[in-house]
Amino acid sequence: MGGPNLEVFKFGMYIMFPIAWMYYFGTNLENRFSVPDFWPKAENTHRIPFEREEIQSELERLKQRRLARRARRLEKEETAQDEVP
User: Fold this and answer.
1) Integer CA distances (angstroms), 44 to 1, 34, 39, 58, 77, in order
2) Is the pTM of this model over 0.70?
3) Contact 72/78 with Cβ under 8 angstroms?
4) Residue scoring higher pLDDT (82 or 5)
């Protein structure tokens, strides 16, 4: 059996180990665990329109996109229906 010095050492380890662990992983997080260029730049992301004209143009663009997809889908369905014997 160890003496009181061993018990003091063990107690110190039980207390200091979690504190040292939290200190190591809790400091300097921006440099240690960061991935460069993880978040996209502002010019590479979607821009939310706020002006009335921008909103109208965005709605028109979405409508044209939806109609183009619908036309392609209907064309595919029509050709698939023609191929069925």
Assistant:
1) 66, 20, 10, 17, 36
2) no
3) no
4) 5
pLDDT in tens, 25-72: 888 877 777 788 888 888 888 888 899 999 999 999 999 999 999 999
Tokens describing residue 35: 């991935």
List Cβ neighbours of 49 (8 Å cut-off, separation of 6 or more).
Answer: 55, 57, 58
Buried b (16+ CB within 10 A) or exposed e, 33-70: eeeeeeeeeeeeeeeeeeeeeeeeeeeeeeeeeeeeee
Determine the Cα–Cα distance for residues 60 and 54; give it in Å rounded to an integer. 10
Give the CA angle between residues 6, 12, 16 to the nearest 5°: 150
